[in-house]
Amino acid sequence: LSYCVRTTSALFASTRLLVNGSALTGSAVEPSTSTPVWCRATITALPANATLQLQFYGLLGAATLLSQGGAELLVERLGA
Questions:
Q1: How far apart are CA 60 and CA 80, in angstroms?
Q2: What backbone phi and psi angles, to 5 degrees, belong to 64?
Q3: d(Cα 55, Cα 52) in Å, to the nearest integer?
Q4: Residue 44: closest CA among 61, 20, 58, 24
């Protein structure tokens, strides 16, 4: 799994993936300064019919995503 989020301005916020509503260990980006880009990749086994969500958290205010490429989520199947 990998994701990138890009906003129109630098924000002090964090991002992570949720699997069936629970935070996925190793998927969080928690910068110590404001940033306009959050990206992370991780390998994990997903249960059948899992629901994936990409979440901003710790944000005070609103985020405006870039109109082109503002958010990406890539799910790749490895193995048989």
A1: 43
A2: -110, 115
A3: 10
A4: 24
Both tokens assigned to 37: 């880009």
Residue 26: which residues within 8 A CB-CB, separation 6 or more?
Answer: 40, 42, 44
Name the residue type at position 76. Answer: E
pLDDT digits (tens, 9 = 90+) for 29-67: 999 999 999 999 999 999 999 999 999 999 988 999 999
Phi, psi of 23 (to 5 degrees): -60, 135
Name the residue with tokens 């129109």: 8
Instruction: Give the Cα separation of 77 and 80 in Å (integer).
Output: 8
Region 20-24: what's the mean pLDDT?
97
Which stretches within the chain are classed as H helix? Answer: none
Q: 10 Å Cβ neighbour count for 30?
A: 11
Please report the pLDDT score of residue 25 as a whole number: 95
